[in-house]
């Protein structure tokens, strides 16, 4: 049984045409805890062995944005930080955000309550099992088991947090913790979006208004990556980009996220009490490709559980997002993407199998 907490916000996005429900599968957590498990079933084995690709622990550090300077009343400090933010979007598409004002205890509580959810019995977690890709609460495994020929070493819980707030009923403390956390992170997200808007040479609230950010579709995705006896054969999640504007991610202290930077996979090491932020496909669209969403993936290990919690923030569900006209005026930057309603884009991505940036390429190729 799941609960919905009224917030006075607009209702959930309208229902869409949904693909058939995925086949019933055992969770990866249950599989990983099987007595004597020394090898993984063939359904989890990737023949290309993507974990054998070269990985770089680059000496070029991932950019760090000091949030307190981004919202500073000192115009020089703020302008300098906005320039740094624009460079981070151009060069990496990923950056750490420090001094963001969300209490560390709240971030730790969010990770812990998600851990408690995954520790529930299979029957209890099954109460949150969704049937369709846009159900507001959906527990499952892999990415899209109805299409995945090879399954990912991952269990997940996806919950719509805004414009209507949803929560599983178990653990009992989940709702209160997630509600406060989702509110605080939306505030951080809005300020970063304003900074990105200015860094593009747009009015500070251009992206906010163009995407109806007050009614943004905010989706929490909690991921569990259990220890894997053959991590070199499995994948936590294949290379992909995110569908929204910005994703804010926290995780426990286990390394597992890799970002494609300068054609090399780079391990991202967690920084305590910080958000890892990446731009999504809809910043790519709004900027007409000036700021590109970047491929990233999750790998697994044979020792430690990795938990990550991503809050994906997109435009309002019914908003059709297209490139900012002001970025096309010089004639040097032809229109790259047609307008598409955000809910249609999310459904397209979530109903497909992971295949790099194919969702963005799909709409690019639909014609202008």
UniProtKB/TrEMBL annotation:
Residues 50-60 have a biased composition (Basic and acidic residues). It comes from Gossypium raimondii (Peruvian cotton). It comes from the Eukaryota. PROSITE patterns: FE2OG_OXY (PS51471). PANTHER family: OXOGLUTARATE/IRON-DEPENDENT DIOXYGENASE (PTHR47991). Residues 1-60 are annotated as: Disordered. Gene3D superfamilies: B-lactam Antibiotic, Isopenicillin N Synthase, Chain. The keyword Iron applies. The keyword NAD does not apply. Residues 8-23 have a biased composition (Pro residues). Belongs to the iron/ascorbate-dependent oxidoreductase family. GO terms for molecular function: metal ion binding; oxidoreductase activity. Keywords: Iron, Metal-binding, Oxidoreductase. Pfam families: 2OG-FeII_Oxy, DIOX_N. InterPro entries: DIOX_N, IPNS-like_FE2OG_OXY, IPNS-like_sf, Oxoglu/Fe-dep_dioxygenase_dom, Plant_2OG-oxidoreductases. This is Fe2OG dioxygenase domain-containing protein. Residues 212-315 form the Fe2OG dioxygenase domain.
């Amino acid at each position: 049984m799941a609960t919905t907490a009224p917030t006075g916000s607009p209702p959930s996005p309208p229902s869409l045409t949904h693909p058939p429900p995925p086949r019933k599968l055992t969770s990866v957590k249950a599989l990983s805890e099987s007595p004597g498990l020394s090898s993984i079933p063939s359904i989890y084995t990737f023949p290309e062995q993507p974990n054998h690709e070269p990985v770089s622990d680059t000496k070029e550090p991932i950019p760090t944005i000091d949030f307190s300077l981004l919202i500073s009343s000192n115009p020089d400090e703020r302008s300098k930080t906005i320039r740094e933010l624009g460079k981070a979007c151009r060069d990496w598409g990923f950056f750490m955000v420090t001094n963001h004002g969300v209490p560390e205890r709240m971030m730790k509580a969010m990770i812990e309550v998600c851990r408690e959810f995954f520790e529930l019995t299979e029957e209890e977690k099954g109460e949150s099992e969704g049937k369709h890709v846009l159900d507001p609460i959906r527990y499952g495994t892999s990415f899209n088991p109805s299409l995945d020929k090879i399954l990912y070493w991952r269990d997940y819980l996806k919950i719509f947090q805004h414009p209507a707030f949803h929560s599983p009923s178990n653990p009992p403390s989940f709702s209160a913790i997630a509600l406060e956390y989702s509110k605080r992170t939306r505030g951080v997200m809005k300020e970063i979006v304003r900074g990105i808007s200015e860094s593009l040479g747009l009015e500070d609230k251009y992206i906010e208004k163009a995407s109806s950010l007050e009614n943004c579709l905010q989706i929490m995705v909690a991921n569990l990556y259990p220890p894997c006896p053959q991590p070199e054969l499995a994948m936590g999640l294949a290379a992909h980009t995110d569908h929204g504007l910005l994703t804010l991610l926290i995780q426990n202290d286990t390394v597992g996220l890799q970002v494609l930077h300068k054609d090399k996979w780079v391990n991202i090491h967690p920084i305590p009490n910080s958000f890892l932020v990446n731009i999504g496909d809809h910043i790519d669209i709004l900027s007409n490709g000036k700021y590109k969403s970047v491929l990233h993936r999750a790998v697994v290990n044979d020792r430690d559980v990795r938990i990550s919690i991503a809050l994906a923030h997109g435009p309002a569900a019914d908003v059709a997002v297209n490139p900012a006209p002001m970025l096309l005026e010089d004639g040097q930057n032809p229109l790259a993407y047609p307008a598409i309603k955000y809910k249609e884009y999310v459904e397209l991505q979530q109903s497909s199998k992971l295949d790099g940036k194919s969702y963005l390429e799909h709409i690019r190729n639909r014609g202008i």
